[in-house]
Amino acid sequence: MAVTFADLVGRIAEIGCDFRASREHNEVVVAVPTQNYVDPHDGERSMLLHVMLQEEGKMLRICVPEVYAVAEFAHRGALCEAMLAANWRVRVASYVLDESDGEVRVVCDVPLEDGTVTSAQLSRMLTLVAWTVDQFDPVLRRAGTEGKVDFVELDASILKKQAPDARRRKSRSKRERRELADLIKAAGGVEGLRKLLEEHGL
User: Fold this and answer.
1) Do 183 and 84 sit in the same domain of this protein?
2) Phi first, then psi: what are they for 33, rounded to 5°?
3) 59/17 Cα distance (integer angstroms)
4) What angle do CA 80, 86, 89 make, to 5 degrees?
5) Run of H or E residues at 156
6) Which of 13, 108, 112, 161 is the most buried (most CB within 10 A)?
7) Bridging pattern class, strands 103-111 and 59-69
8) What's the pLDDT tens digit per position in 112-141?
9) Do 81 and 178 sit in the same domain of this protein?
């Protein structure tokens, strides 16, 4: 069964955040305070997260619209480069560009199909989307205004806090990759390996 609008409102109410619901637009708007990001419309340190049900409740989208307008920046190439680099560093949320008008949004799309979403899952998604917009804002603004793409300070801060949202990849050696491939093959493929791990409670 797909998620209904009433289900969505109920989950967000369970989280306990400030929101307003619009059945007409099939969305819930959640207000979130920020440390770095300033809303371009009212100059306040806050953002609005739009939580929408799409495809008759089979798809959930969390979106922060109009995060930036590319036309307002002198170094648009550097801004786009920084956004792609930010996408590499985070989970769940992504910067996207509407090339027709230069609007930059941050979105999180979750296919629900016949499943549901818990308040804990929704809380984490909202947190990650808001965190992404707020934490990367100084780096992206500098890239757009000065043409400098520099994540050194932010990366150090993320590692220091050991933020669960940061994506850190450890490169495997050729030997490790070969051994892993051999293990998967010996187990009867990926499904066989998965069953083997489940049998051992891993």
Assistant:
1) no
2) -75, 155
3) 22
4) 155
5) helix 152-161
6) 108
7) antiparallel
8) 998 999 999 999 999 999 999 999 999 999
9) no
